[in-house]
Amino acid sequence: MKSHNDAYSVHVLVNGKPVTEVTRQGDTFIEGRSNSVFELHFKNHSPRNVLVIPSVDGLNTIDGESCGIESQGYVVRAFQELTIPGWTIDQKQVAKFQFKKQGGSGKNQTYTEAVDESTGNQGLIGFMVFKEKYVSYGGGVTIRGGHNPWESSPYTHNYDTMWSSSTTYDTMSIMGSSSAPVDIETKCSGMSSDQAAYSANIVEEPSLGTGFGKASSFDTTTTSFERESSPDVVFVYHYDTLKNLERKGVPVAMFHEHHAKPRPSPFPKSPEVKTGCKIPYGWKG
Fold first, then answer.
1. Of 121, 134, 151, 238, which residue has the fewest beta carbons closer than 10 angstroms?
2. Domain tally for the chain?
3. Residue 209 pLDDT > 80, yes or no?
């Protein structure tokens, strides 16, 4: 999924590859399969550093708290990208994201069920993106607020966990196939007003949530970042089993069509590029 100005793009990855996305009535849907591990991918195509706040099932993936406009996030440098493999345990490791059926027990519970958080936002994945704040000091000179966390030493990854004190905000955009401003009451739940109305008409509850999977290495460090007062954009995915997506009216045949399509090639008559010619029998060189 891309932002309206192509400044950012996001994907949900399974086995390192983007899953198929299907859009219906302004909402973007993906298929989830129980016990499958997934990752969140964000790419910054812009010349500015940004803060990305990841949300899964309504919770911030960094601290496990209810996700909102003041939540912690990752700093992604200009023209860099970030892959988030799971729920943060500490600055060295995460617990992998794993689709789980709702209503399970023990290790089969979703994370929101396991920590007794609200389960009303299960089935949603979101990315809230803030630009770094610029401070003007007159005379036409613009100075970027905050320090440069990458000035003195390189990091293993192109991102860092961070905290911000920004408290004011305005309207923002929810990215599906539409980018119109939305009411603030529906932002933190990851839905535009149209999406909220559509979801209210869905009788079938999402059958999937996200579990707290196996530990995995993921090195991060803390830094400061002064975000702009309002998010530049918010991306939202709705996920569920194929059966439940079909019940909701999502054109699930498009998932199958995607997998059936051959990989694009600039030379369709020679899809497999080979190096060298076939050696004749008996050739000795």
1. 151
2. 1
3. yes
> Which residues face 143 on adjacent strands?
135
HEC-encoded secondary structure of 171-233 = CCEEECCCCCECCHHHHCCCCCHHHHHHHHCCCCCCCEEEEEEEEEECCCCEEECCECCCCCE
Q: Report residue 148's pLDDT band, with 50, 70 and 90 as the boundaries.
A: very low
Distances (CA, A) of 50 to 86, 228, 273: 20, 9, 39
pLDDT tens digit string along 81-102? Answer: 999 999 999 999 999 999 999 9
pLDDT > 50? residue 238: yes
Whether 229 maps to a domain, the answer reads: yes
pLDDT grade, residue 109 (50/70/90)? very high
Instruction: Classify residue 243: in a domain, yes or no.
Output: yes
Determine, yes or no, domain membership for 277.
no
Domain that holds residue 176: 8-260
Alpha-carbon span 285 to 19, nearest angstrom: 48
Q: Which residue has the tokens 């999402």?
A: 206
